[in-house]
Amino acid sequence: MKPRTFRKTRIATSLSVVLSASTMMPAFAADEVASENIEVLKVTGIRGSLIKSMDLKRSSNGVVDAINAEDIGKFPDSNLAESLQRITGVSIDRQNGEGSRVSVRGFGADQNLVMLNGRQMPVTTGSRSFDFANIASEAISAVEVEKTSQAKNSTGGIGATINVLTHRPLSSPGLKASFGVKAVDDTSTDEGSITPELSGIYSNTFADGKFGISISASYQERESGNQQAQVGTGWRSFPGIVDQDWGGDNAEWGGVPKDDNQINRPGEGDVYSVPQTTVYRFEEQQRARTNGQLVLQYEPIDSLRATLDYTYMQNDIDTQSHDVSAWFNFVPTQESTWSDGPVSSPLVYSETYPDGGADLSMAAGDYGTRDESGSIGFNLEWDATDNLFLSLDYHSSEAERSPNNKNGSSSNLSTAAFIRTSAATDFTGDVPVLAVGGGNQVRPEDMRVTGSVFGNARNKSEIDQLQINGTYIFEEAGSIDFGIAATDVNNHSQSVNVQRNDWGGVGAEGDFDPAWFPTGSVQDQFDGSQGDFSDYEGSASVDPQDVIFLWDFEAVRARAAELYGSTAVGDCGNGFCPSTDYASDTDRYTQEESQSAYIQYNYEGDIGDMPFDVHVGVRYEQTDVESKSAVSSYDQATWIAETEIALQSTTTDNRVFQTQKGDYDYFLPSFNFNIEVVEDVMLRAAYSETIGRPDYTSIQGGTTVGTLANRGGGSGSTGNPSLLPLESENIDFSAEWYYADASYVSVGYFRKDVTNFIDNSPVNSDIYSIPDPSNGVYVQEAIAAGQVTAIDQRQWIYDTYGATDPNVTLNPDNGNIEITGNPGDPSVNFVINTPANSSQSSVIDGWEFAVQHFFGESGFGLQANYTLVNAGDDFDNTNLGRPDSATRAADAGQNVLTNISDTANIVAMYEDYGFSARLAWNWRDEFLNSTGNDTGANPTYTEEYSQLDFNIGYDIAAVEGLTVFFEGLNITNENTRTHGRSYTEVLNYTQTGARYSLGARYTF
Is the pTM of this model over 0.85? Predict the structure, then answer.
C-alpha cells in the first residue's frame, strides 16, 4: 500500500510549504506533498497562524494542539505561557503577574514534560516544571501540546508533552529578518518606570540552500510590584473540644478559651482554625532578561542535514520588600466572633495585652537572584535509503540559579516597636483588615532591630541527553519507528543561612536616625473588599493599621552591623550579611540516569471510503537515582521570646551525611487510531500507559528543619530518593469537524486512572529529641502558680530559677529572658513534610470542547474552548489529619488530587486592511492547591481567576514590513486570593495590575 497523509486544504498546504511549520508528517509524506503542483497562497498574521495550528492538529497521530508564530519574530503573546493558556485544557500559574508554569488537564506543572526542540531542559527550582518566564517568544516558531502519548514520545508528561520549537533556517529558506522594539508600562509598580524590550532575528541560507544560519536575541527590562495581605505563617486548626484550660485535658497552644468573650464559639463537634499572623507586604521587583540563540545548518546532499545550535538564557531578578505585621500570641484574653460550624472560622479574631509591650513588627528585604542557562546541541538527519530514515540528537545543557545581590538570594531584617496593646483582624472581606492598639501612633524613634535572616542558595542542574531515532517504511505494509535514548540529570543544591534570633529586640529605642524611616500608608493600597469590624463585640482597638515605615534597608543594616554583635557571622564578619560557606550547611547532590528504547508500528489504509491510520508501540524506561546529602542537625532549643524558640547545636560538627538510592523500570504500551469517517470529520481513539516522575526536591536525601520554631513546634522537610513515579492508564476519544479553511469544532473525552500518587504529607516527629522549654516542667509549674500568659510564665521561671539553673538566663545584649530545655521536658515536635507513594488510586476524567470560526472574508474570527475536569473526591475540610490521642481517634487519610479545575477561553479577533486586533478572556475555576503546610495537614485553595488581554496592530502601508502595535494584559486589574478550610481563612491576597506595551516591528 502506498503511504499517504490526509488531504489538506489548499490554504493549509500552501502554508506548510511557504512557512515550513514544524509538523508531525513523516519525510516520505512531505516529499509527496512537495511534489504536487500547488499555487502558493501566502497567508500570515492571526489567520495564518491559526490555520497552521489547525493543520497540525488535523494531521497529527493523536490528540494534539499547537500555537504557531504569526510571522517570523511574531508570536501571538510575548510570554509563551500566556499563549499556551488559550489551548483547550491548559491553565497557567502566574508569578508577579506573568505566566510562569502550565498545567494540562488538571495535572500540575511537574507532571507535564516541557522540551525545547525535542530535548529535556534543566531547571533550577527543584521541580520538573519549566519556567516560561525565562524564555522570550521572538525566536519561537511553534509550540506543540501532545495530549495523547506515543511510544516514540519521551516520558514524563502525564498531562501532556509540550515541545517548544525554535526557528530553523533551512526550513524557511532565503533571507528573513525581524527587529522589534517595545516600551512597557507595568502599572503594578509604585517606584518603577517605563522599561524597554528589544528583539531581533536574522535568518538566511547560502550555497543554493545548502547552508543556513539563524541568529536571534532579545533583551527585556521590567519593573513591577505587588501588594499583599496575608496570614503568611498559616492557620492552626483544632477540634472544637480543644481549649486553653491547662488544668483540663484538652488544652493546646492556640486553642480558644470557652468563655463569654467568644461570640458563637465553635462547638465540640466542629473544627476551627486560628490565625498566627496578619501581614501587609509590599514588593518592588526589577527584572532583566537576556535570550539568544545561534543555529547553523548544513545540507551537503538532499539526504543529509546537520544542525548545530546554542541557546542562552539569563534572567536577573532583584526584589525589595517592606511589611508590617502583628503576631498573635494566643493569650487567654481572646475576644472573637465565629462563623457557624462544622468548619468554624473567626469573622473577627482579637487579642488584648493589658500590660502592653507586645511588638508591632516592620521588616524589609533586599535580595536578588540570577537564573542562567546554556545549551549546546547537535542534530543529524540522514535519509539512509528510500525506506530508512535515521536521526541522532545530542545536547549538553546546564542551568544555575545563584545569588545576585550583596544581601544574598533572600534577606529579611526585622524591626519592631514594642507598643502594641491589642491586635484584631476582620476576615469578612477579600482583604483581611488588621487593627493594632497603638499602631497608628508609632514613631520612628520607637523602632528597634529584632531578628534577621540573610540567605544564600544556589541550585545547578546539568543534563546530557543522547537520542537515536529511526523510521523504516515498508513498501506495502506501513512503517516502524524505533529508537534508543540515554539521559543523565545531575542536580546540586546548596544553601546557607546567617540567622540572628534576637526577636525580642536588641539595642535601645532611638538607635537609628528617624529620617531613615519615611512613613507610608497601608489601607489605600488595596482595591478588594474589606470588613469594618461590625461583627465584633470585644475591647480591642478596631482602628485599621495604616502606618508603615518604608525604612532604608541599607542604612539600617549598616548601622545595626556597627552597633550589635552576633554569634551568627556572615562573610562580612558580622550577622548582617550572607555567607558563602556552603559547606557548613545544607548540601545535596542527586543523579538521575535514565535509559529508554521504543518501537512503534504505523499503518495507513482505507476502510471503504474512510482513510485511517493506526499507531501501536511500546516503550521501555529504566531509571536509577542516587542522592548524597549533608544537612545540619540540632540538640538544643532555647525559648527566646513569647512565641519564638531557637534551635542550636552544641557540637562543632553537627552535619548528617547520607547516601540513598532508588530505581524503577517500566514497559509502556500505546495505541492511537484515527479515521476520517466522512470528508473533513476525524474521529480518534487512543490508549496509553505513561509515568510522571517525582520532582527533584522530593528525591533529594536528608531532612532539614527551620532553625526557628514556636510553642506549637517546628517544621521541616525531607526527601525520598526511592519514590516511584506516578503511573497512569490513559484513554482518549476525540471528534473533529474541519468545516472550512480556517474553522473547526471538536469535542474530546479523556480518562486517566492514576496510581502511585505522591503524598507530601505532614508527619509529626521528635526527630532530634530536643527538650522543649516552652512546654516543659517549669511552664507547668508556672501555670500551677497562676501564670497564664507566656510573658508572665517566662518572668516567673526567671524569678524562680534564674539564680540556680544555668539554662535560665538574661541575654546581656538585649535584656531578654532565655530559657533552654532541660532533660525531662517533652521533646520539640516537628511537622516534617514527607513525600511517599500512596497505595490508593484515582480517576481523572473530563471533556474538552473547542470551536474556531472565521466569518467568511469579513476578517472577524472567534476561538472558544471549555475544559470540564472531574477529579473524584473533594477534600474534607472537617478532617484535620491529626494522629490519635487520648481523647480522639486518628483522622483518616484523604485520597484527593490537587490543581484540578475547569478552564475556559474566549478569543475574539479581527484582521483586514492592515489592521489586526485580538481580545482574549481566560478563566480558571477554584481549585485545591495543596493539602499541607508548615502548620499541618491544612488545605490551600486558589480561588477562581479570570483575566482580559488585548492586542492591536497596524501595518504601515508606506513602509513595507513595518507594524506598530499596542498590547494590554490584565486590563481589568484582577487579583489573586488563596484561603484555607473556609473562605474567611484567607492565606494570601495579592494585587498586581495591568501591563501595557507600545511597540514596533520591522520584518523583511
Answer: yes
